[in-house]
Amino acid sequence: MSLFYRLDTDGCQRVVDLGDFYLGPGTAACWIVGGGPSLNEEVAAILRASPAPKFAMNLCGAGLVRPTLWTSYDPSVRFHRSIYLDASIQKFVHRRRAMDVVPETTIKVCECPNLVFFDRHGCSSYGDWLDAGKARIGDWADSFLQAIELAYRLGFRQLLLAGCDMRIESSDRLRELAKERSLATTGRESLSELVALCEKGGVDRKTLARSGSGQQYHFDEQKEFWAAVRTDSHYFRVAQYLRLSRQSLARAGLQLVSVTPGSRLNDYVDYEPIAMAAERVLRRVGDPRTESTRGLYRGDVARQPLDRQPMRDLRPPRAGLSSPDAATRPVEILVEQAGWERGVGR
């Protein structure tokens, strides 16, 4: 049963098989683009120059990075028309949004180009989160975890987490309140953590609300104070979900690499400076900014690496052979059966 499908406006469903579509001979890498304030112009420039796909969610990357892949969790009215109608962006949306109308248009979401739907299932176990046998995506009530599983199902095995701060910083005023009350703080508390300390120390909720929060996103949007506190608490839960899923991630062969300094995830997943991660991608894929075109149409440029061993395309060994030379005998037999010149392909 296929995971992805298209839907027509009358509800008719057509299967689209994208399982492992991006899987390659090496470790396929993908940028996961979050909405944290750490995603500034310097980070965005590195992402734009990278040949690895950019997988964004919701409003993440808006104004800085155009995504290659995109998914959402919330209602369609919260997102941009130019995402839904951009045929160059591959979009993954839950079927519940199929008959929503694209903002500022009369077009239904199911009519959008390069958009597929999926179904979700309730997550009851960390151990089988990334079970490829399931024909549904796990529902953690979170677009970030949804993007991680979608990327895995598409064949990516290394996810580089940019702009994934997974925390909302406290405002200067809130830190001052904590200092005035002589509360024991470490200076690393996020918004929800410091609010809990202040409430315990006797600061009333109206005073807390007036203190405000730090910058919440890299794009132009700001939630009211208590909604921001709930969002930060949600980020904490998501970080714990990932911590508790590390064995599941390892079993699936999926590596998460945070390239976000100060991320809440850095205590639980590998961290690497974004410049180093981007350089690794370029070494594996090649740098389109520096590749030369001179002589390629004339065919007079050596293209094979000179420091490599010779390659031979061998047929697989036949099952049931147990002799010491079983690894080579089947190839010789199959070569003869195919009428090939002896020695070719061996």
What does this structure look like?
This protein has 346 residues and is α/β, with parallel strands linked by helices. Helix content is 29%, strand content 13%. It is built from ten helices and twelve strands. The protein has an eight-stranded parallel beta sheet, with helices on both faces. Strands 1-2 form a two-stranded antiparallel sheet. Helix 4 packs parallel to helix 5 and helix 5 packs across helix 7. The C terminus is likely disordered.
Task: Provide a quick synopsis of the model.
This protein is α/β, with parallel strands linked by helices. About 30% of the residues lie in helices and about 15% in strands.
List keywords for this structure.
single chain; 346 residues; alpha/beta; sialyltransferase cstii, chain A; 3 domains; eight-stranded parallel sheet; two-stranded antiparallel ribbon; disordered C terminus
Question: What is the topological layout?
Answer:
Blueprint: E1 4-7, E2 13-16, E3 29-33, H1 41-49, E4 54-57, E5 69-71, H2 81-84, E6 90-94, E7 115-118, E8 120-122, E9 137-139, H3 143-154, E10 158-162, H4 172-180, H5 191-200, H6 205-211, H7 225-244, H8 246-252, E11 255-258, E12 270-271, H9 274-285, H10 329-337
Parallel strand pairs: 3-4, 3-10, 4-5, 5-6, 6-7, 8-9, 10-11, 11-12
Antiparallel strand pairs: 1-2
Helix pairs in contact: 4-5, 5-7
